[in-house]
Amino acid sequence: MQDSLGRNLPGAYSGHQSYLRTDDYLLDLTPTVPEPRLAFVPSDDLSPDHQRTLAYFTNLHGFADHVRFLQGQMAGDTTTSNSATRASIGSVVEAVVGSAVADEHGLGIGDVITLKASAWVFTRASARIVGIAEPLNADDEYWRDRSTIYFNPHPPETTTDMGVVVDEDRPPIALVITPAAAAKVPGDLVESADYTFSHGFFVNVSGLGDHVELLEGAMPTSEVSSGPEGPIVEAVLGSPLASMLGTRVGDLVTLTPFINEEVRVSARIVGLVGRDDTDSEYWRWGPNGLFALGGDVPSAQPIFVERDALVEAVSGAYPGTLAASTWYIFVDPEGLKGWSLSEIRLGLRELDNDLSELLSGQVTFTGLSGLLDRYERRRFFARLPLLLLLTTMLATVLYFLAMVTSYVTQRRKVDLAMLMTRGADAPRLLRLNGAEAVAIAALASIPAPFIAMGATALAGTLPYFRPLTGGAFLPVELRRGRLDTRGFRR
Q1: How far apart, in whole angstroms, are the C-alpha atoms of residue 41 and residue 53?
Q2: Residue 62: CB atoms within 10 Å
């Protein structure tokens, strides 16, 4: 690409910067822990003083990966319904209970527990126990200090009025179902688990280390290590965006393209950087937007990593994924001053053609095309007054030339008639007058360019040009040139 830039923009190409950017990924995807919605287990004993057992449905994404099954298996997503029993137990979902819950309430595989939100509503649903489990590590960050909700619930401190007497001193039955099954259970009995996340993307910016100030920590390296969920890379964040989004040095953030993706790429934040010289040419292109200028918080967090680390980690975790590669080309205005408009347009067109052959599907944008269009339009309207002036002058010259020609022709009619009476034919007359015309033209052409240069320079003192020249002479240069096959002046 650099050869193509140097070949099509000779003398004007002064360098480039580029950045490689992934798509927006889900940043710090974390399952939510929905609040249990207490219900009671209906009983055949309809006496007013009979205490009903409390129970609730709960669900969590990834539950099966963090528990050990003592009996049975993980609950499925399907629900069953029997018209004969629908009125008494409602639809039935599969559920898992903790070992402590099973021991407390004497539950086993195959038992069916029916839940009802209150005595005043008909809505109910049931759970068939298909598994008894315990957590692999109750202190794991996954449980977010709330593992007791699933495995060892405590008696509630307060309860709402359900229209029946409930046993508030006994722990409720926690029935763990899948999020897909929770979506099929009436909403007054369970809240479906979801995820919390923001958005972020990996980006590598060329030359960033030479144009930023390290505010905290260190710059990232190209090292890629293995973590429990996937590769881990080192990264830095840009200020003030990092503080606006609440990310700090030392944090480990994870990114994944999809919710159900098993592999995640993590980034350990090792440093915080800020722009050094905001007036330098480097900051006139893309990286400015990665530092949250103007006080706006962008929709995605840019995470700066080394190019090799980005390619290795992302391509290894998600083979076939795409990334956007953007090049910013810097052009020296002084190098373009000797170019004509046609030369600039031709150079840009051939550059686009070369890049299309090198990179299939690439798109080239330049502000020069619009600038050239506006310049040509302004130049056209600026030339109109001068064109009218020259047209008037040319009409005047042609008028006087016609008058002189007519006068000379009338004067020479007698001489021509005498020559013709003495045998002079048309070719002879043409030779006589043609030689005279060539001699006059040759003598006039020698001083003509110099007279034209002087007259043009003096035109700068005219009132029409005075706003542009300040009353000085117009700059005039006499030179010769040729055009090659590409249309460039050599």
Answers
A1: 5
A2: 11
Distance between CA 254 and CA 262 in Å, rounded?
Answer: 12
Between 324 and 75, whose confidence is greater? 75
Helical (H) or strand (E) element with 345:
helix 341-358
Instruction: Give the model confidence (pLDDT) of 208-255 as tens digits.
Output: 888 899 999 999 999 999 988 899 999 999 887 777 667 788 889 999
Handedness of CA 220, 226, 228, 230 (dihedral sign): positive
Q: CA nearest 66: which of 130, 129, 142? A: 142
Bridging pattern class, strands 195-205 and 231-238: unpaired
Is the model's pLDDT at 71 over the cut of 70? yes
In order of 43, 94, 129, 306, 348, the CA distances from 203 in angstroms are: 61, 44, 48, 8, 28
pTM, full prediction = 0.65
How far apart, in whole angstroms, are the C-alpha atoms of residue 78 and residue 97? 17
CA dist 485 and 490 (Å) reads 11
State which H helix or E strand residue 418 sits in. helix 367-421
Q: Which strand (E) or helix (H) includes residue 437? A: helix 426-445
Question: What sections of 220-304 are H helices per DSSP?
Answer: 241-245
